[in-house]
Each structure stands twice: as C-alpha cells, then as structure tokens.
Amino acid sequence: MNAVLLHYAGYIRSFSKVNGQVNAEAEDYVKQQPIAAQFKFRYDR
After folding, report:
1. Is the pTM of this model over 0.90?
2. Quick check: is 45 in a domain?
3. Number of domains comprising the chain
C-alpha cells in the first residue's frame, strides 16, 4: 500500500489543493480511502 501511495503522492497533493494551497486534511482523507478499502476486500475467494 505504501508503494501505491508514494507513486500517487504528486497527484494526491495536486488534487488536495484548496485556493492554491495544499489542504493537509483533504490530503490525509484521500490517503485514508484506499487503506480503508483494503480492509473491506475479501481475500478468501
């Protein structure tokens, strides 16, 4: 998961800008979504 977040770090930072400045809360929220999604995925199938 860390490799994915590092790969997309520039995109995440770019899309988390509000009025031209990086919004840290928005950036953290975007990073948390794929982490939360992996726990919903069923690996037993």
Report:
1. no
2. no
3. 1
DSSP 1-45: -HHHHHHTHHHHHHHTEETTEE-HHHHHHHHHHHHHHHHHS----
Range of the domain at 14: 2-40
* Residue 10 amino acid letter: G
Residue 26 lies in a domain: yes
Q: Is residue 20 part of a domain?
A: yes
Q: Please, are residues 16 and 27 in contact by the beta-carbon 8 Å criterion? A: yes
Q: Does some domain include residue 24?
A: yes
Instruction: Please state, in angstroms and rounded to a whole number, the distance separating the CA atoms of residues 2 and 22.
Output: 21
What six digits make up the tokens of 7? 């790969």
* Span 3-13, pLDDT tens digits: 999 999 999 99
Residue in this structure with the two tokens 């939360």, named with its chain if needed:
36
